Amino acid sequence: MRIFSNRRNKDDDVADEFQDLVQDVCVTVYSFVKLISDLQEYVAKIFIEEYGVHGPIDLNSLPKMARIMSKYAAADSLRKLRNYPKSVQKQFNTWQCLRKKAMSSSKSEKLKLAVIPAKLCFFYFYNGELCKAIVCLLDYVKLIPDDILATEAAIRWLMFLGETELLKRKMKTWNMDNDSRELWKATRAAISYIESKDTRGETLEKLVGIRDKIRKENIKTFPKFELSSYVHWMCSTMCNVSVNSNLVASEFPDRLSQLQEASAKADSIMRNRIPGLAAYQFDNSTSSSIWPFLEGNRPGSATDYINLGSTIAWHFEMRREWALVNVTTAQGRSSMCAMILNLRIALKSASFFRIIQAANIMTYFSMIIEEPGSEDNMKLMKASSLNLISADSIKSEIREQKTSAHFDEEDDMTMIQQVDNLSSDLDIDHLFHPITHSCGCNVCLQYPTSSTFAAEYMFAYCIHSDFSQNSMEHFNKEFVCIRERDMRFQALMHRDDLRPRPNAIQSEIFGLCTIQWLIRKIDAGEPFDNASRDIYKNSLRIAKYLQTRMIDQILAVKQLGRQLEYPQNVNYSWMQPVRKNWTKLGIDCDADFFRAVPQFGPKPIVHQDDLEAIQTRIREEMNEYTHILYRDWRSRIFPYIGRTFTCPWEAAYAWAESTFIGSRNAVQLRLERCHKGLVTISGPDHFRNCVEAMPTDMTLVQFAMADNKHIYLIKLHADREPIIMPIAHYSQASELMDKFTHLLDEDELICSCPGNMSATMFWERRRFVDARLASFVGEVEKNFLGVSAHLLRPSDRLGPESDILAEKIARISKGGLRIEESKELVYLAQFMNASSWRKLVLRFCEMRTTDAVFPDYLPTFHSVALDALKNDRTATAQEPSNKKYTYLVVCPQLSQFCWERLPIFNDFPYVCRQVSIHSMFSQLEALRNQERQLPLQIDMKNAYYLLDQGNNLCEKKNPLLDYINKFKWEGKIGGEPDSTEMATALEEYDAFFYFGHGSSSSVMPTSLIKNAKCNAISLLMGGGSVKTIPQAHGFDGKSVLLDYAMAKCPLIVGCLWTVTDGELYRFLMRMIDDCFEKTRNVIGVDKLRQLAEAMHEARSNARLKYLTGAAIVMYGFPVVSKPVPVVVDERGE
């Protein structure tokens, strides 16, 4: 007889526990997928309502995106999803309790139990909780070690989070499959690159070799695309190291190009798995639902859940990093494009976390950018993200004020105004309320359970608090709590007592906030107190755990900290801040303050030892990281060097290197490589060689904005060391541009709204504005520049007697003047009276110290300088050439002003602009290598034109057609041109003309221009065609000029502001005839009429000499007409 016990077997209890957990997890994740799919379908319908099936997604579509966000926040499905994080957290905790038993079960049982970590892994990947997802992924790999794809995913994610120590241990225990050989080799190489500095050169070659092999094979399978994305991502961080002796000659993969490829491969995988979530899938009818992949025709397997979760998370992380690195490298246009697409796919995913993440980055970027419209975008995104984070709290307030984010369906343009009102009325402290267990809002439910959400929430709080001191102090304290919560899950990855390093994404968010907080403290002149020092040190300590990943933030925070602690700001007597209201005409800067402030004001006290120590550290950074161009660092450290270092070559080099950051990064993106000297000037010595190699008839003058926003003038000539002078406080420059823009707006109003004005009245009113503009330009020279305006004159070599005198003056000044300044002053004496010359000398002396009696000698020195110059001219028995060229490199903030029309240039018409110092030096070197001489010779018969591509010039184009037919140019009238035809026009013709509205970018893609080999001089005859719109400190601004500069266009002619079509075309015809027709039969290049001369003459003959004449400028090198070939007859005539 068998006796049956009533006691259950212990193994049966365990089996039941697992069975219950398997069922709970499957039901929970199944219902989560169903709700997400329903929400995705709901969002997809709204997208079609807002955009149509194929509607454009661009900056103008942000109001529509905000409406979709609002409707998403109000959706019932989203409310039902609120409790899932807490439920899944309980199941995760239960699994961790049973995990040890599961690992000791049989192989068949492990196969059944693997669904638990697999589906939990999917849930956490989809919601952006990467640490928990990887804990579950590692558990799955331990249960199913033969799942090669899951093992590869684990390797990728551990590397992504910077868990290299753990990854090395895991790779010793995991089995490597033959198909995964390249991934293992690449991972080992990347870990070695991080840990072993001495062998980085060899490791770099190995990793790049693996990347190139994958490219060459071009195998189009999911695993190969995942491998390609992963390897390109690892290559993107290779350049983030100091160039020491082992790497000084190394060529790194460019960060932008590698991330672009990593993102593109991830997008390709997404396009094939969930097409609607692909970034560049613009068909809104394409499904973005995850349901068909997981639970469509059949229930999804554990592998399906892991693969999809990992794929979606990797796609979002690559897209996020791509967007942020675009900001870091000053790619304004690409940054906005990437962020809008990221927000779009986040909405289509219906993932609450991903939408908040995308909205935060978009808002962050909108706060940085200062171009017109960015403030409205910022307010729009702020209100939208607030509505998303605290939907319940805001919704009732919105209804009362009738400013709901369900804005007026009939008028998209009302969106901005309504959001403006909303954002000003919202109580930030109420919305960002304390986290409590009793509150049922999204934030309070997710904040305690998700460290990634908590970091994004604190990011949003800092953004909405404008990165204030209080918000950063709160984030600094809260970061410790967030990290402690996250460490519990990081510890579950390690399964040991080691203290894990901070989470990479959270550290990155804290670094972004720290940078903006430091910038605001510096701009406000706030002190570097103990609380600030604590935040600063904590940020550096956190970032250093992932140095190769976050070197851009480390360098930026270091320099901002220096600038905050040792600002070394000096407001000289001529550059005091403007504190009074201005009238419509006139600019009062220099004259008033010269009388009000003592000539030699107090200097800030800086201990010499501290200053030398700072400069030593700065030199080390500059030399070690000169190959990388990160905006927040380079736009701060190099101007700081420029205004504080005493060596003129070092300072001038730094001023040059502080500019053109975005465009040089774009060049590296195209070349896909990065090394010292590729797009940077490799050092002060090389910079000196470039300047001394300039033709002696060429003078380069740079207007630069410093890290403290003061305006500096840097003058370069082959005969002497650079001359550097601060010329204006930022408020003075801002006042200048405000008044200037006011006059342009006034004229544009007359032109755009003539009403019933007669032609006589129309021209009278415009002539009146033109006269005011002429007066204003004169006042800018007198009051804004003052006596420093004379530094804009082209320089020349000094004779021996003048040279000796310059050395004597510098010696007697006892440190008040440097030798290069003394040389320039001696040369300028011939153009200045004794009084003005004395003021200019004393400006230089005020920047340092000088002997008290030195000013008494200045009248005598001026007289002696005139005699010395005269004697040198007599000794050479040669009249100096009057063809001296002045090239202006102007920062975006001042670029629209008509510097060429300053009275100082009346006797020196050869004034031209350069897009950047780097492009100028590069083209000069190319001309020397090709043995080509300046001025360039242009055959105006060999030209191509585009006319009226928008079909809106009507009868205005008839005079142009007659003119074009005179030259028999080839070209196209109306319609969009063929890209191949346009590339040929830029490369094979001598001249390219664009006649239409705006710049040629409206009909020619920027990528076409950038990638062309532009040999043709380009004349862009449209209103504002070469206008540069300033974006923010460190950005190049928005302008088609940058595209033509990348294509190495030798000369660009265009308009700084809008000019009426008839005036513009008359100006052009007069200028072209004067330069290319009247002198084309003249023998001898020196006798040919230059385009700069013809432009100067055309300005003088324009009906409106300033509103029209000053608008047209040129960027590039001097050109003349190519002479007609001379045929010699039998008599030699």
Features:
58% helix; 6% strand; alpha/beta; six-stranded mixed β-sheet; five-stranded mixed β-sheet; disordered N terminus; single chain; 1133 residues; 46 helices
Can you offer a commentary on this structure?
GO terms for molecular function: cysteine-type endopeptidase activity. It catalyses: All bonds known to be hydrolyzed by this endopeptidase have arginine in P1 and an acidic residue in P4. P6 is often occupied by an acidic residue or by a hydroxy-amino-acid residue, the phosphorylation of which enhances cleavage. It is an enzyme of class 3 (hydrolase). Residues 940-1034 form the Peptidase C50 domain. InterPro entries: Peptidase_C50, SEPARIN_core_dom. With 1133 residues, this protein is an alpha/beta fold. It has 46 helices and 15 strands. The strands form 4 sheets. Strands 10-9-11-12-13-14 form a 6-stranded mixed sheet, covered by helices on one side. β4 (711-717) and β5 (720-728) form a beta hairpin. α6 (115-126) packs antiparallel against α7 (130-143), α7 runs parallel beside α24 (469-494) and α34 (730-752) packs antiparallel against α35 (759-785). The chain is globular and about 110 Å long.
